[in-house]
Amino acid sequence: MLFDTTIRKVLVDGSQWASWHGYHLPVSDEHFVIWTPAGTQMDWRPGTWISQKHQLSYFWPDAWYTIHIGYDLSGNFLSGYCDVVLPYSDYTNTAAEMIYTDLYIDVVVREDYSVYTKDQDVFQRAAQRYSIVEQSRQKSFEMLNWLEEQAKRWTGPFAIVPRSLPRTDFEQLTPEEAATILREAPI
């Protein structure tokens, strides 16, 4: 049985923006992957809904980003969403919570793999209000630009992200089975 976890997206003021349930897929000790199947309740501040897609979320210790990849019910790539975040070092393959602090700017990958960035205006407003955002400005925008280029070429952190899934029932597998299948999935 896979370890359960809750992903929590937190804003720099400490308030929670979103949370949802997932399962650890222990593919590595260097990065951490969370499987969220379609049908999972997504609790966001603006509202709650049931996810119509599968998702893999990727976390790296001390990285300035997280990556969330959506797949349709058959396991085909739908979208990617990359949050620029404050680095966090305590991720593990068994953590009950995977918490990240959003810095508001994002890279989005569309279904056709075209890429764009967004929410620079939100970052500007937050930087006026929160010193941690202003202090992170240079690194945040360096990371935004780097992630955009990596997403366009499917390199860097995207090099481990499958464009399609060989199956979509990871929650039914043992940790070893799930990790092996994901490691062997075509990139």
TrEMBL record:
Protein name: DUF402 domain-containing protein
Listed InterPro entries: DUF402 (IPR007295), FomD-like_sf (IPR035930)
Database matches in Gene3D superfamilies: FomD-like
Membrane-spanning parts: none
Pfam family, one: DUF402
Domain (DUF402) ranges: 46-154
